[in-house]
Amino acid sequence: QVQLVESGGGLVQPGGSLRLSCAASGFTLDYYAIGWFRQAPGKEREGVSCISSSDGRTYYADSVKGRFTISRDHAKNTVYLQMNSLKPEDTAVYYCAAEGLWSTVQNMCVMPTLFTSWGQGTQVTVSS
Description:
Mean pLDDT: 94
Number of strands: 11
Radius of gyration: 13 Å
Strand content: over 45%
C-alpha cells in the first residue's frame, strides 16, 4: 500500500526557512514523479515543485524559483523541499504526491489531478 507522510511544517517569520520531508512507503521511488503541492484557503491546489525519481529532473513554479529546492534521497525513500526566504503568500497546506512518471515532471507538476497518491498535508504559516 502506497503511503506518503509529510513532516516539517510550522510557523515561521517572513524571510525564514523550513524543510519539508516526504517519506514514502509501500513503493520505491523509481520512475515516479514526486511533487510538492500547496493549497491556500479559497484557492486551488497548485504545483510548487516536482522531481523525477529516475533522473532527478526538476520543475519549480515561477513563484518559488530561486527560493525553494527539491531533492531526493533514494536510500531513505524520502523527498525534501527546502524553502528559504519564505513570504506570507507561501502560507498554505503543503502536500506531497506521487505518480508514475509517464511524462516530463514539467508537464505533470502543473496538473495536480494527475497524481493519485497523496500525503495528509502539513501546514506552513509565514507570519510575523
